Amino acid sequence: MFGLGNEYVTPDSLGPKVIANIEVTRHVIKYLPEYVEEGTRGISAISPGVLGTTGIETLEILEGIVEKVKPKLLIVIDALASRSIERISSSIQIADTGIVPGAGVR
Asked: Nearest-CA neighbor of 49 among 1, 2, 96?
């Protein structure tokens, strides 16, 4: 799981807040398998921050992680900016093309 956003800016902090509450299991399955219930899936989670605080484009971080870890599925969580109040708390986007910053307000 990949939590986009800036944890220090309330309207943009959804991704980091969700990641902080995810039970990660990939490392436990790898190093302590005897403590893991059979059928547990390996979950990894990261919230890398934003370009303004890291100096690294989020896409560069994501590409490096995907290249090294090779996850079967990538779930990206981000706050939604929208002109329409009806979309708030009711939108799920499934895409294979990536996220465009600010696209929700166009």
From this structure: 2
Write down how long the chain is: 106
Residues 81/5, Cβ–Cβ less than 8 Å? no
Which residue range forms the structural domain that includes residue 82?
2-105
Paired with 46 in beta bridges are 2
pTM equals 0.76
User: DSSP secondary-structure letter at 10?
Assistant: G
**31-51, pLDDT tens digit by residue?**
999 999 999 999 999 999 988
* Residue in the block written with tokens 């969700």: 18
Contact indicator for 4, 58 with CB cutoff of 8 Å: yes
45-68 burial: b if 16+ Cβ within 10 Å, else e: bbbbbbeeeeeeebeebbeebeee
Query: Which amino acid does the sequence have at 43?
Result: I
Three-state secondary-structure class, residue 2: strand
Our count of domains for the chain comes to 1
